[in-house]
Amino acid sequence: MYRLYFKKIFEILTNKDKKNFILALFLLINKSLLEVLSIGLLIPILNFLVNEESKNILYKKLPFLSGYNNNELITFFVAIFLVIYFLKTLFFLFYNRWNARFINNLNVNIVQRLLEKYLHKNYNFFLEINSATLLRNLTAETSLFSSGIVGQVILAITHTVFIISICIFLIIYNFYSLYVILILLFLSYLVIKFSNEKFKKWGDIRQKENAYFIKKLNEVIGSIKEIILYQKKQFFLNEVYKHSKNFSDANIYRDTSLSIIAPVIEFLGIFIFFSFFIFLVLFSSIGMGKIIVLFGVFAFASIKLLPAVIGLVRAIQTIKFNLPAIKVLEELSNKKIIEKKEIFEKVPSEIFNIEEIKFNDVNFK
């Protein structure tokens, strides 16, 4: 299913947008590699503090370091660590600005393309579709597609690459990490699986109620004189409130569900992590020095890994909630568009031809 939606997303994007999308992925993969590198640099620092055996191994592989004492070597590795972190911070600042420009420019382009499609429709198209639906599509759905789908797809892929990189690093460093990772990923999968269908349902409700809400507002504003004269204010207030409340309920479900993801996954991650630590202390033959180093690496990795897992789950749920926007924008794809069957009969061309109507001295100023 996700493969089909991903294909549809790429069909909607222009060639320039596709190139920027791929560039965004490339930049974020580099961001993930910098994160992994920063975690890896902690290992020699911690080993120098607690593990004498690791020092000897390092001296054999890099004999030029043997002339320095422990304090100098720790200072050296800390300096490298800080330089990598500084470069990573600069890269993040550059990427965040670039990504904001990409997503917002994408939204502008999609609005223009969709409006152009509407302006090329025949007159009957506008007779059979409510203007509120068109307004919703041009304002809400285009924005949700840009930031709520394309932006979240980029984040989801990035978090996935980062999680895989961190997991491979931890497994290579200590094979027992595999069990911790598998349990955490399985529990995260259950969280996604449990809420996916409900997110799709509330996403459909959000789209439908938003159109109704705009429709009712148009009716109120367009008929304000009649409403006041016939004293129907309360009736229209109730109508607007009903759709506004349903729209709000959909957003409340989305925001509440997304807000509980972080504490739940954080608790599960911390619980699994400390259970693993207790297991190593009580049942493994690993020395306490190595366990402390492993604990330090895990602690720092978890600072990065847990937010990535949380971000991945949130991105997937946000995409699921906003999927109805793809249906609205499918006509921007390069595939042949099947138009709606017109419900109004056309006037015979020999009697009346709209193309022959000429307007003089008309402007829109």
Shape: elongated
Distance between the termini: 48 Å
What structural class do helix, strand and pairing data support?
A: mainly alpha
Give the fraction of residues assigned to helices. over 70%
What is the mean pLDDT? 76
- What is the count of β-strands? 0
- Give me the strand/helix succession: HHHHHHHHHHHH
Q: Describe the biggest sheet?
A: none
- Stretches with pLDDT under 50, minimum 5 residues: 335-347
Radius of gyration: 29 Å
* Beta strand %: under 5%
SS field, number of helical segments:
12
Task: Please characterize this protein's 3D structure.
The chain has 365 residues and is an all-alpha fold. 82% of the residues lie in helices and 0% in strands.
What is the secondary structure topology, with strand pairs?
Elements lengths: L1 H11 L2 H26 L1 H9 L1 H10 L8 H50 L3 H6 L2 H43 L3 H46 L1 H6 L3 H51 L4 H35 L1 H6 L36
Helix pairs in contact: 2-5, 2-7, 3-5, 3-11, 5-7, 7-8, 7-11, 8-10, 8-11, 10-11
